[in-house]
Structures are given as C-alpha cells and as structure tokens.
Amino acid sequence: MTHDTEIVKKTVEFKEHFLSLNDKGQDSALNILRALEFAQSVMCEPVDTNPRQNTCLHN
Fold first, then answer.
1. pTM of the model
2. Which residues contact 55 (CB under 8 A, 6 or more apart)?
C-alpha cells in the first residue's frame, strides 16, 4: 500500500469519527489536535520549511 493511500484511509477514518461527535466533542477533539501539534512542534526540529514534515512521530 502506498503512503498516499494510507493517508487517504486515515483521513476518511478521521472524518467519520469526527463527524460522529456532537459539537462539544468536536471542539474537544480540535483542542486535543492543536495541543498535539504544538507539542510536536516544540519537541521536533522541522526537516525543511514545511513544519508538518519532521523527524518525530513519523511512521
């Protein structure tokens, strides 16, 4: 399975779970994702100018 295919499957699964939450759950999920993004940015050095591409938490 290609990397792009895996990303598409994960995105579809994420959307299904996110949309099944009520408004409060969606707000909480967004806050958790923002906190994880912040923690990752603090702990990891970017590989290039794209902050989403880094050496940590990358499978």
1. 0.64
2. 44, 45, 47
